[in-house]
Design brief:
The structure holds 2 protein chains of 2 kinds. Chain A is α/β, with parallel strands linked by helices. Chain A has helices at residues 4-20, 32-36, 39-53, 94-102, 130-133, 151-156, 161-169, 172-182, 194-200, 223-230, 232-246, 260-275, 306-313, 342-354, 356-360, 393-400, 434-439, 458-472, 478-495, 503-517, 521-525, 528-536, 538-545, 570-573, and strands at residues 25-29, 58-62, 74-77, 83-86, 112-116, 209-214, 250-256, 291-297, 337-341, 370-377, 383-388, 410-415, 421-424, 448-453. In chain A, helix 12 (260-275) links the parallel strand 7 and strand 8. In chain A, helix 18 packs antiparallel against helix 22. Chain A is globular, with a radius of gyration of 25 Å. By secondary structure, chain B is α+β, with helices and mostly antiparallel strands. Helices cover 50% and strands 12% of the residues of chain B. Chain B contains 7 helices and 5 strands; from the N terminus they run H-H-H-H-E-H-H-E-E-E-E-H. In chain B, strands 2-3-1-4-5 form a 5-stranded mixed sheet. In chain B, helix 6 runs parallel beside helix 7 (145-164). The chains are: A alpha/beta, B alpha+beta. At the A-B interface, helix 2, strand 8, strand 10, strand 14 and helix 18 of A face helix 2, helix 3, helix 4, helix 5 and helix 6 of B.
Chain lengths: 584, 165
C-alpha cells in the first residue's frame, strides 16, 4: 500500500496537469440544485459540442459552490487563462458559451457571473460576490472546485493530510483532544460537543461502529446531501478519523434511498478510497483498519433520530428506542456506536490537520466554526452558504440572499427544520449560534432558513409544517401519534375558517402534553412550529378564527398533503392483498 | 404460502441474493426487490422473509412502514411534487391541484388507466429551486402549474401513442 507522501505527489502531479496543462477544464455544477435547473442537459450539450468540433477538453460534473440561484453554473478554465463562471446556463446556449471561450473568441462576458485567476475585463471577481465573499468555507472548502469522483483532486487540495498526521504522529486520544480543543459542536441540531461524544465511546475492541447520519429528511435543508454531492471524501476521511480516535472497526453512511446523486457519489468515493488504500486493512501502512459502507433507509423522517437510525441500519422499522442505554455503550446490534451528522464529520479532517485552536478561532467562543445555511423561499439569491457561527441572520437573508424578490419586507423566517420555529422579522437580528437561538426560544437545527415576505400567511406556513410532522410521526408513542393528528385537525379547521371554540387552548394543551411525554424529539418538538406561529403572528390567527378570513388568500388553496400511513396502517393495506399471518 | 409467478420470484431471488453492500438486512433486501420490480408483490415479501430468515409479518411490518415502497405495479411514468414548506409557499399546492385536474384524480396515486402515478414528496432536496417536481426521477425546479401541465400532457400523449401503437 502506498504511503501518504506518494499519494500526495501523484495527486499534485495530476492537479498541475489539470490546472496548468494544455487541456481546458470545464466544471458544471450538478448537485441536486444544479440538476433541478437542468445541469444534466447542459453537460450533454457541452459534451456533444466538444465531440462535434473535435475539441479536447475535460468535463466534470461537480458539486455546489453555494450560489444555487445561478445554477446551472458552467465554470470554464482555459489553458493559461482564468476560470470564468457562467450562470443560469441553458442547454441551448452552453455550446456557444464554451466554444467562444475555448476558441479564443471574445468571451460572452455579459453571461459571466465571475472569474477567478487573472482579471477579466467586464466581469466581477467571483470572490467579491456577496454569496462567495461572506463565506468561510471549511466543510465545503472543495465544493464546486473538485470533481466528487476523483480522490486525487481531494488529496491535491489537502485531503488526507489530517488522517496521515493522525496515523503517523498522534495517539487516538490525541485526536479526541484535538476535537475537544476545536470546540466543534454536533451539527445535527443538538449542538453537543463532538470531541466529548467521541470520548464516550466504550473502550475495548471491535466491532464498534461509526455512524454518519445523512437521513436529512428536513424540508428546507440540503447541506448534508450538498456535502456528499460536492466532496464526499471529506466525510469519508472524517469518519475514518473518528474510527481511529474511538478504536472503531466499521462505519455506515446512512442515506435515504432515492437520493441518487449523493448516494452514487459517496459509493464511488468509498470505492476509490479502498482502491488507493485509504480504507480497508492497514490504512496508509499503519496498523489501523477501517471499513465503510452505505446503509440505505426508506422514506421516514424519524429515521434521522439516532436510535431509530440504528433500528433502520439493522433493517427494521425506524422507530426510536428508549434511552438509556446510550449508543456509546449499546448502539447498532447492541455494540458501541458513535453517531454524528455529515457536517460534524466533515470538519474533522481540517481540525486534525490545522489544529483545534485554528478551528476555534472561527465563529464564536462557545459556538466555534461555521454554520452551513440553506437559504430558500422569498429571497433573490437562494443558496447553500457556509458562514462563521454568530453571523447575524439578517446579513444572510439581506446581504447574501439579496432580500425578497418582491422588495416587500421579510415577515417570517422558518428556522431549524420542521421541528423548528416560525419566527418574526425581529429574528433577523439573531446571531446564528446554538446558544443565542436557544435564548430567543428558537433553534438553529440543521441550518434551513426559509424566508417569507409579508404576503405570506403564518397560518398556512404552520399548517404545512404540522401536516409534515403528522405525516412523519412513526406511530410508536401515542402522544406524538395522536397529538400530531389532533393538531393537524385543528390547524386545518383554523385554516378553513371553521375553528371551534377553544381550539387554541386545546392546541396548547395537546402541544405541551406532547412536549413532556413523547419518546423522541419528533413529538417533543412537534408543537414548535404551531406554538411559535401562534406567539409571533397572533393577528393572522385572529383573522382566521374571529373574522373568518385569510388576509392573504393562501389558506383558500387546499393543502393536499399525503396521509400518514404508518400510524394508521389500514390505509396502507387497502391497495395490497392480505398477507398471511405466519410465525417462524 | 401462495404460489406466485415463477419468473417474478426468480427475479426477486436474484436481486436479493446479489446485493452489493456487505450488510444484508430485511430492509436492504426489500430495497433490492423493489428496485428490481418497482413494487413489492406478496411473492417479494415472501422471498425476502425466506432469504433473511424473518417472518412474513416482520417483513410486512418493515415494508408497510417506509412510504417509498409500493405494493401495486408502478405506472409507466412517475410524477412527484414536493410539498416541503419552501415549495409550498412558492406554489406547490397549485401544482398539485393542477396535476389532479389534468390526471382526473382526487388524491395521489395511479391514474385510472395505470399509466401515470402522482406522489406528494416531503422534500426532493433542491429547496433553492422551489417549487420542485420530479418527472421519471429527474428533478425540475421553478416549475409553474402551466409548465407542469405541459409535462403531464406530454407524458399522457406519449403513453397513449405507445398504447395505440
Amino acid at each position: 500500500m502506498p504511503e501518504y507522501r506518494d499519494l500526495k505527489a501523484e495527486a499534485d502531479r495530476r492537479w498541475e496537469e489539470l490546472t496548468q496543462g494544455s487541456r481546458p477544464w470545464i466544471r458544471v455544477g450538478a448537485a441536486m440544485c444544479g440538476q433541478a435547473s437542468g445541469a444534466l442537459d447542459v453537460i450533454d450539450a457541452i459534451r456533444s459540442e466538444l465531440g462535434r468540433t473535435g475539441t479536447d477538453a475535460r468535463v466534470d460534473s461537480v458539486g455546489c459552490i453555494g450560489l444555487c440561484y445561478a445554477e446551472p453554473i458552467v465554470d470554464v478554465l482555459s489553458p493559461g487563462g482564468s476560470r470564468l463562471f457562467f450562470g443560469n446556463v441553458s442547454p441551448d446556449e452552453a455550446p456557444h458559451l464554451v466554444g467562444s471561450v475555448l476558441n479564443g473568441g471574445r468571451a460572452p462576458v455579459d453571461k459571466a457571473i465571475g472569474y477567478l485567476g487573472p482579471r477579466v475585463a467586464g466581469v466581477p471577481d467571483l470572490a467579491t460576490l456577496p454569496g462567495i465573499g461572506s463565506q468561510e468555507k471549511i466543510a465545503l472548502r472543495n465544493a464546486g472546485n473538485i470533481a466528487p469522483d476523483d480522490i486525487y483532486q481531494y488529496i491535491a487540495n489537502g485531503g488526507y493530510a489530517g488522517l496521515a498526521k493522525a496515523l503517523n504522529e498522534m495517539e487516538p486520544e490525541g485526536v479526541v483532544d484535538e476535537m475537544k480543543a476545536s470546540g466543534l459542536r454536533g451539527r445535527g441540531g443538538a449542538g453537543f460537543p463532538t470531541g466529548v461524544k467521541w470520548s464516550f465511546m466504550a473502550r475495548g475492541g471491535p466491532p464498534k461502529y461509526i455512524l454518519c447520519n445523512c437521513e436529512e429528511g428536513d424540508p428546507g435543508a440540503y447541506n448534508d446531501k450538498g456535502i456528499l454531492e460536492s466532496d464526499p471524501y471529506t466525510l469519508i476521511e472524517g469518519m475514518t478519523l473518528a474510527g481511529y480516535a474511538t478504536n472503531a472497526s466499521n462505519g455506515f453512511v446512512f442515506i435515504r434511498h432515492g437520493h441518487d446523486g449523493p448516494i452514487s457519489r459517496t459509493e464511488r468515493a468509498i470505492e476509490q478510497a479502498y482502491e488507493v488504500g485509504l480504507l480497508g486493512r492497514s490504512i496508509l501502512d499503519s496498523d489501523f483498519s477501517f471499513d465503510i459502507e452505505i446503509s440505505l433507509t426508506g422514506e421516514s423522517y424519524v429515521a434521522g433520530e439516532e436510535t431509530a437510525l440504528m433500528e433502520s441500519i439493522e433493517g427494521k422499522r425506524s422507530m426510536p428506542r428508549f434511552k438509556p442505554p446510550f449508543p456509546a455503550a449499546f448502539g447498532v446490534w447492541g455494540k458501541p456506536s458513535t453517531i454524528n451528522n455529515v457536517k460534524s464529520f466533515s470538519y474533522a479532517p481540517e481540525i486534525v490537520s490545522r489544529g483545534g485552536d485554528w478551528f476555534s478561532s472561527v465563529g464564536r467562543e462557545n459556538c466555534t466554526g461555521t454554520a452551513i445555511v440553506c437559504l430558500s423561499g422569498d429571497v433573490k439569491r437562494p443558496g447553500m452558504y457556509e458562514v462563521p457561527m454568530g453571523t447575524r441572520m439578517g446579513d444572510v437573508v439581506e446581504e447574501i440572499g439579496g432580500g425578497t424578490p418582491s422588495g416587500r419586507p421579510v415577515k417570517m423566517i422558518q428556522l431549524g427544520g420542521p421541528l423548528g420555529h416560525i419566527l418574526g422579522a425581529d429574528s433577523l437580528d439573531y446571531g446564528l449560534d446554538f446558544d443565542e437561538m436557544r435564548e430567543h426560544g428558537a433553534m438553529l437545527g440543521s441550518g434551513g432558513v426559509i424566508v417569507g415576505d409579508d404576503s405570506r400567511c403564518a397560518v398556512d406556513m404552520a399548517r404545512v409544517l404540522v401536516a409534515f410532522c403528522q405525516y412523519e410521526s412513526c406511530g410508536k408513542c401515542f402522544p406524538c401519534r395522536l397529538g400530531m393528528t389532533q393538531l393537524l385537525e385543528m390547524i386545518e379547521r383554523i385554516a378553513d375558517r371553521q375553528a371551534a371554540p377553544g381550539d387554541v387552548d386545546l392546541m396548547n394543551r395537546v402541544g405541551s402534553t406532547m412536549e413532556s411525554s413523547s419518546l423522541c424529539f419528533h413529538g417533543q418538538l412537534g408543537y414548535n412550529p404551531l406554538r411559535s406561529a401562534l406567539v409571533n403572528f397572533p393577528d393572522d390567527f385572529r383573522a382566521h378564527i374571529e373574522e373568518g378570513r385569510c388576509p392573504y388568500g393562501d389558506c383558500e388553496e387546499p393543502l393536499l398533503a399525503p396521509r400518514n400511513t404508518r400510524a394508521f396502517a389500514e390505509e396502507h393495506r387497502a391497495g395490497a392483498a392480505p398477507v398471511q399471518v405466519l410465525t417462524r | 404460502m401462495t404460489d406466485g409467478n415463477g419468473a417474478l420470484r426468480d427475479r426477486v431471488r436474484t436481486a436479493i441474493s446479489s446485493q452489493g453492500q456487505p450488510t444484508v438486512t430485511v430492509l436492504s433486501s426489500l430495497h433490492a426487490a423493489h428496485d428490481e420490480l418497482g413494487y413489492l408483490p406478496d411473492a417479494a415479501i415472501e422471498e425476502v422473509a425466506a432469504y433473511t430468515e424473518a417472518t412474513i409479518n416482520d417483513v410486512w411490518g418493515v415494508a408497510s412502514f417506509y412510504t417509498n415502497f409500493r405494493f401495486t405495479p408502478p405506472a409507466e411514468h412517475a410524477l412527484e411534487v414536493c410539498w416541503g414548506p419552501t415549495c409550498h409557499i412558492l406554489g406547490a399546492a397549485r401544482i398539485k391541484r393542477r396535476c389532479l385536474e389534468v390526471l382526473e384524480l382526487t388524491d395521489e396515486g395511479n391514474t385510472a388507466d395505470g399509466r401515470l402515478s402522482l406522489k406528494y414528496n416531503t422534500c426532493l432536496g433542491a429547496c433553492s429551486q422551489a417549487p420542485v417536481v420530479s418527472i421519471d426521477h429527474r428533478l425540475h425546479g421553478r416549475v409553474t402549474p402551466e409548465e407542469m401541465q405541459r409535462h403531464v400532457e406530454r407524458l399522457l400523449d406519449g403513453a397513449a401513442a405507445r398504447q395505440d401503437g
